[in-house]
Amino acid sequence: MGRGRQKAKHTKVARELKYFSPDTNYSALERELSHPSDGEPDYSKWIDEDDDDSELDGVTVVNPELLDSDEPRQKRA
């Protein structure tokens, strides 16, 4: 397929997406955006049961101030 036909297809799809306006379900949108009235939201669905800091074992934490310095780094023995 030539570049002209390909560009025409992309233009057609872009135009369809630009002017497409589906019906909006305002009640579902309101439910999604509303805050729960009983205090703290429930974050339990985002908690990873296997989440521990074992992935960080053996990782050296670097002081960010040292990263911006122009001094050469010393090698570790």
Description of the molecule:
Residues 24-77 are annotated as: Disordered. With 77 residues, the chain is an all-alpha fold. The chain is built from three helices and no strands. The chain has helices at 3-19, 26-33, 64-67. The radius of gyration is 27 Å and the shape is flat. The N and C termini lie far apart (60 Å). The model has no long low-confidence stretch (mean pLDDT 76).
Map the helices and strands.
Elements: H1 3-19, H2 26-33, H3 64-67
Region (Disordered): 24-77
Biased composition (Basic and acidic residues): 29-47
Protein name: DUF3073 domain-containing protein
Note the main attributes of this structure.
77 residues, 3 helices, 38% helix, DUF3073, DUF3073 domain-containing protein
Provide a brief overview of the structure.
This protein has about 80 residues and is mainly α. Helix content is about 40%, strand content about 0%.
**Category by helix and strand content:** mainly alpha
Helix content: 25-40%
How many distinct beta strands? Answer: 0
Return Rg in Å: 27 Å
Count of DSSP-assigned helices: 3
Amount of beta strand: under 5%
Mean pLDDT equals: 76
Q: Assign an overall shape.
A: flat
SSE topology string: HHH
Can you tell me the residue ranges where pLDDT is under 50 for at least 5 consecutive residues? none
Distance N to C terminus: 60 Å
Largest sheet: none
